[in-house]
Design a protein that fits this description.
globular, alpha+beta, 9 strands
C-alpha cells in the first residue's frame, strides 16, 4: 500500500478524481466477477417481485447486504491499489459507510441525474466506483465534472440530457478499473444505450469525525476485521 504520487495529489486537489486502471485484476478480478454474478442471480427474483409491486425502481438493482455474502466484498474496501490514497486524502482517518453492488440494466434514461452527494458542511465524502465488467462509451459509464468539488465552483444545474452537462468527463474503462472521486463534486451515471448491463461497485467513505461512528452495520463481519486498521475503518474500534 502506498500513498499518492505528487501528480496524483495535484490532480485530486485540482480535479477531484483519480483513475486506477488496473485496480482489481487477474484471479482477484475473476473472484469478484463470480461473486457478483452469483449473488445478482440469487437476488434478482426478489428484486423483480418488488418492481412488480411498485416497491423498487426498475432502472437499477443493488445486491442487498453484500459484505455479508462474500469476503471479496470486504476485501475490496481496503484494497492496496487505492487504499493508500484514500488514507492520505482523509488525513489517515478514513471511515467506511457502505457499499452498493449495482447492476445498471439497458435503459433509455439514467436512473440518476447530475448531482453532488453532500454539501461542503459535511465531512469529506469520497466514493470509489469499480467496474466489474468492461464499460464502453454509451454503456452507462460513470461521469464527473472536474473541479466541481471546489468551494465556489459552479453554479451547476441539472441539464435535460446527461450529455449536456458542461465540462463533464466520462469514464469508459475495462473491468477492474476504479474511479475515486470527491463526492462534493457533480457526477452521474450516463444513459445505458447498449444491450449489456453495467456491473459496478460503489464504495462509500467519509473522513472520520466525532459523532459519526456507527459500528452496528459491520458487527456481522467483525471476524474478518482482525487488524487494528481494518477494525477502525469499519468503526469497530474508536
Amino acid at each position: 500500500m502506498q500513498g499518492p504520487t505528487e501528480a496524483q495529489t495535484m490532480q485530486w486537489d485540482e480535479e477531484g478524481y483519480l483513475v486506477f486502471t488496473d485496480a482489481i485484476e487477474n484471479d482477484e478480478l475473476r473472484r469478484l466477477q463470480n461473486a457478483f454474478d452469483y449473488w445478482a442471480n440469487q437476488c434478482k427474483p426478489d428484486w423483480l417481485e418488488r418492481v412488480e409491486r411498485g416497491e423498487q425502481e426498475a432502472t437499477y438493482f443493488d445486491i442487498p447486504n453484500p459484505i455479508e455474502k462474500d469476503e471479496i466484498f470486504v476485501d475490496i474496501v481496503d484494497h492496496p491499489s487505492y487504499y493508500g490514497c484514500l488514507r492520505h486524502f482523509t488525513d489517515g482517518e478514513p471511515m467506511f459507510l457502505g457499499e452498493a453492488v449495482r447492476v445498471l440494466p439497458p435503459w433509455p434514461l439514467s436512473y440518476t441525474g447530475w448531482h453532488p452527494d453532500v454539501p461542503h458542511t459535511n465531512p469529506l465524502h469520497i466514493k470509489i466506483q469499480i467496474y466489474v465488467n468492461d464499460v464502453d462509451p454509451g454503456c452507462g459509464e460513470f461521469a464527473y465534472v472536474p473541479a466541481s468539488h471546489k468551494r465556489g465552483a459552479g453554479p451547476y444545474t441539472r441539464p435535460l440530457f446527461q450529455e449536456s452537462m458542461p465540462g463533464h468527463r466520462r469514464f469508459a474503462a475495462k473491468a477492474g478499473a476504479a474511479v475515486m472521486f470527491n463526492a462534493y463534486g457533480w457526477h452521474a451515471a450516463m444513459d445505458n444505450h447498449s444491450l449489456i448491463p453495467r456491473k459496478s461497485i460503489i464504495l462509500i467513505y467519509e473522513k472520520r469525525s466525532p459523532g459519526q461512528v456507527d459500528a452496528e452495520p459491520f458487527t456481522s463481519i467483525a471476524h474478518l476485521c482482525t487488524s487494528p486498521e481494518r477494525r477502525r475503518l469499519f468503526s469497530l474500534e474508536e
